[in-house]
C-alpha cells in the first residue's frame, strides 16, 4: 500500500482572491488600445459627416433656407450636423424631389450609421456575451486530439515550451489552473485556459479532456497530481498521461492511478546536479538534450523503409534506444538489430530551428 508524502502547500492556491466557485473557459483575446479604438470610431463618424455635407452641397439647389433662401457650404455643414444628430430644427429643408429622394435613400441610412458609430461601445458591451459564446462553440467544435496541461507553473511552462518547440500549435493546447491570474497570463501568451480545480471532472470536461490525445499533469502537490490523474484516466482511457511528482516514493502511486510516465522533479534535478559535479561537460550535454529546439535533441520517430533490416549502428542518426511494441531496447541490445519497419527509434539529432522535431503519430 502506497502513501502520498505531501510537500508544502500549493503556492498558487494560497491567495484568497483567486478562489474560483466554478470552472470558466478563457479564450485568448487580441489586445486593443482603447484610445486607438475611440480614435478610429471618431474618424469614422467624421467621415460619415463629411460625406453627408458633400451630398447636400452637391444638391444644394434643392434645399431651402428660411433665413435667406440661399444654401452655402456652411449651411450644408449645419444641416448635415443637425440631421445626423436627429436634432432637426427645420430651418433648412429639402423641397425638390431629388433632394427629398436623396434624404430618404442616402441621408437617413447615414444618420443610422452615424448613431451606430457613436453608441458602438454600448453595442459592443451588449454583444460581447453572444460573441464569446459563439467563439466557445466554434472552439469546441474544432478541438480534437489536443494537449491538456494541468498546472501553469514552472513545470507546466517548461513542458509547453518543449511541446511548442516540437511543432505543436498553441491552439492545440488547453491549460487548466485554479488561479484566474495565471490563466490571464496564459491568455496573453496565446493559450486557451480553464479556471478551476483539475481534480474535478467538470473542470476537465470543460477542457475537453475526453477528446485529448495527451495530458500533462504539472501540479505543485503530489496528492493533487494523483487525483487529477485518476480523474483524467476515468474520463479518457486512451490518452497518454504524463505526470510530475516531487517525491520519488509517490511515483508508483501515480502509475497505479493511470499515468503512462512519471517524472520525479526533485530526484531528476538532484541527478543532474550530481552529474554536473562529476563532469560539468556531461551535465551541459544533458541540459542541452532536455532543452528541446536548440543544440542536440532527443527525437522519437518511426523506422524508415531504407533503415528496415539494417543494424542500429547503420542508421544516419545516432540511435540510443529502439521501441518495439511495448519493449524499450537499448542500442547495444542484441535484439535491437536488425531494425523492423514497425519499430520506432529514439535518436539524438541536431535541432533545426523552425522545423518540427517529431513525427506525428500515425492514425
Write the element-wise H/E pattern from the N-terminal end onward. Answer: EHEHEHHEHEHEHEHEHEHHEEEE
What general form does the structure show? elongated
> Helix amount, in percent?
40-55%
Please report the total strand number as a whole number.
13
Strand content: 15-25%
What does the oligomeric state look like here? Answer: single chain
DSSP summary: helix tally: 11
Structural class: alpha/beta
Strand arrangement within the widest β-sheet reads 1-6-5-4-7-8-9
Rg estimate, integer Å: 32 Å
State the end-to-end CA separation.
38 Å
pLDDT < 50 runs, ≥5 residues: 5-21, 354-363
Biggest sheet: strands, sense, closure?
7 strands, mixed
Instruction: Provide the residue-averaged pLDDT.
Output: 80
Walkthrough of the structure:
The chain is α/β, with parallel strands linked by helices and 363 residues long. Helix content is 43%, strand content 17%. The longest helix is centred in the N-terminal third of the chain and has 25 residues, at 34-58. Mean pLDDT is 80; it is low at 5-21 and 354-363.
What key attributes describe this structure?
7-stranded mixed sheet; 11 helices; 363 residues; 43% helix; 4-stranded antiparallel sheet; alpha/beta
Amino acid at each position: 500500500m502506497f502513501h502520498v508524502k505531501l510537500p508544502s502547500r500549493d503556492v498558487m492556491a494560497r491567495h484568497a482572491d483567486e478562489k474560483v466557485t466554478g470552472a470558466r473557459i478563457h479564450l485568448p483575446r487580441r489586445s486593443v488600445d482603447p484610445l486607438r479604438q475611440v480614435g478610429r470610431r471618431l474618424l469614422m463618424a467624421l467621415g460619415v459627416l463629411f460625406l453627408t455635407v458633400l451630398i447636400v452641397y452637391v444638391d444644394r439647389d434643392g434645399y431651402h433656407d428660411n433665413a435667406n433662401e440661399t444654401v452655402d457650404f456652411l449651411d450644408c455643414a449645419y444641416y448635415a450636423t443637425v440631421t445626423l444628430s436627429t436634432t432637426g430644427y427645420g430651418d433648412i429643408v429639402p423641397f425638390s424631389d431629388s433632394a427629398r429622394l436623396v434624404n430618404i435613400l442616402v441621408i437617413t441610412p447615414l444618420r443610422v450609421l452615424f448613431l451606430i458609430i457613436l453608441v458602438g461601445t454600448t453595442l459592443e458591451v451588449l454583444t460581447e456575451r453572444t460573441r464569446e459564446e459563439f467563439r466557445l462553440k466554434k472552439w469546441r467544435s474544432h478541438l480534437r486530439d489536443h494537449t491538456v496541461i494541468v498546472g501553469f507553473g514552472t513545470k507546466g511552462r517548461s513542458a509547453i515550451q518543449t511541446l511548442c518547440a516540437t511543432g505543436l500549435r498553441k491552439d492545440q493546447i488547453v491549460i487548466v489552473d485554479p488561479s484566474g491570474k495565471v490563466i490571464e497570463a496564459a491568455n496573453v501568451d496565446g493559450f486557451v485556459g480553464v479556471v478551476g480545480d483539475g481534480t474535478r471532472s467538470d473542470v476537465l470536461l470543460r477542457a475537453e479532456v475526453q477528446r485529448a490525445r495527451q495530458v500533462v499533469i504539472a501540479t505543485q502537490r503530489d496528492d493533487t497530481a494523483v487525483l487529477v490523474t485518476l480523474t483524467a484516466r476515468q474520463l479518457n482511457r486512451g490518452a497518454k498521461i504524463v505526470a510530475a511528482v516531487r517525491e520519488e516514493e509517490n511515483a508508483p502511486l501515480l502509475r497505479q492511478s493511470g499515468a503512462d510516465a512519471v517524472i520525479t522533479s526533485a530526484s531528476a534535478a538532484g541527478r543532474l546536479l550530481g552529474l554536473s559535479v562529476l563532469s560539468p561537460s556531461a551535465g551541459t550535454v544533458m541540459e542541452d538534450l532536455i532543452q528541446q529546439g536548440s543544440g542536440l535533441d532527443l527525437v522519437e520517430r518511426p523506422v524508415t523503409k531504407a533503415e528496415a533490416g539494417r543494424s542500429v549502428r547503420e542508421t544516419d542518426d545516432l540511435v540510443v534506444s529502439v521501441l518495439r511494441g511495448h519493449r524499450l531496447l537499448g542500442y547495444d541490445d542484441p535484439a535491437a538489430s536488425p531494425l523492423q519497419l514497425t519499430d520506432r527509434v529514439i535518436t539524438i539529432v541536431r535541432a533545426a530551428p523552425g522545423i518540427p522535431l517529431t513525427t506525428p503519430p500515425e492514425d
